[in-house]
Amino acid sequence: MSKTIAINAGSSSLKWQLYVMPEEIVIAQGIVERIGLNDSIFTIKHGEGQKFELVQDIDNHEIAINMLLEQLIELKIIGSYDEITGAGHRVVAGGEHFKESIVIDSEVLKTIEDLSDFAPLHNPAEAQVVRVFEKVLPHTLNVAVFDTSFHTTMPAVNYLYSIDTKYYEEFGARKYGAHGTSHRYVSERAIDMLGKPAEETKIITCHLGNGASITAVDGGKSVDTSMGFTPLAGVTMGTRSGDIDPSLLQYLMEKLELTDIKDMINILNKESGLLGLSGVSSDMRDLENSDKDSAKLALEIFADRVRKYIGSYISVMNGVDAIVFTAGIGENDINMRKEIINGISWFGCEIDDEKNNVRGEERVISTDDSKVKVLLIPTDEELMIARDVEALKK
Ligand code: ADP
After folding, report:
1. Does the global pTM surpass 0.85?
2. Which residues does the annotation say bind ATP (predicted)?
């Protein structure tokens, strides 16, 4: 049986899912956390609720992958390495170069490494993982699936910043967006649910997780998205600020006596967003359970920023048929979905409280006479990756 592994490697983590394809059955999944630190955590879930966990130092991604492959044999999840015929690697930055998923050869791998400036924490780790796969599984087809590909259909009017175009031409300074695989998956599902030809649909997809982004999908294609040159831009996120006046950086650096812009960016990436606003947590659940005013205000700001993007994307597309909620918050946070949609009732959206009273299930959650459909669609980036590998195997 042919198996495909979907890999999502970060600088210190490696998440994976193993599929039987083309049946699309998940037979095992796992995560290696704290790679390169002490007490790394290695977990595999398989079979019917079986779990394997090991805590030990795992120095690098190569060791992590070798451990993973050995355990797949040990736990009898696979009989031999040859069964893994495909590996799909999530790559954060594909720049303008990669408009779709692609089989990785030495030239593609070099381009992924060359794009490291755009995602310094991710692309080098992802390239390293591909190299390990080439070494330990030489017969496996490696495919790169880029976070940015879905957004390469954005028109210049939406991807250019209002700065001298020579910065775009010389250095690639433009909006690239992220979470593309998720926006692609949920928008395709939404088009199916709307039952209209893709060309006639206008959809706004809200991927609201720890990282959050909103995308305008017109005729099945991304035409604008809230993340920018990097995932720091857009709506308020767990620990990221989202949009901010760049002059504030200079002002704060002077006040904080910072000399390295990287320290300032680090504050915006790691200490801002819901965490910075509330002083409580970056996790929605903690904020909803807190009785602090700062937590309530953080929730209001989150809902406000999402609504503002929805409003602006209705203008970008001159209309909207459906608004989609997905990812951790979008799939599970009944109150937040209601908060967001109640604030844009003027556009003709109305939540059905009974239908909305659900977590992680694909369904319509607006009332029957709501002019704009509101859809809850659990995302599945790994499945999208496995499908892309399958399509490229042929
Ligand atoms: P990541 O970007 O890390 O993949 P997720 O998509 O897993 O993030 O989303 C994490 C967010 O989802 C957290 O803010 C978490 O609080 C929120 N979340 C998860 N479950 C619930 C729930 N039942 N109610 C509200 N928020 C939830």
Report:
1. yes
2. 15, 207-211, 283-285, 328-332
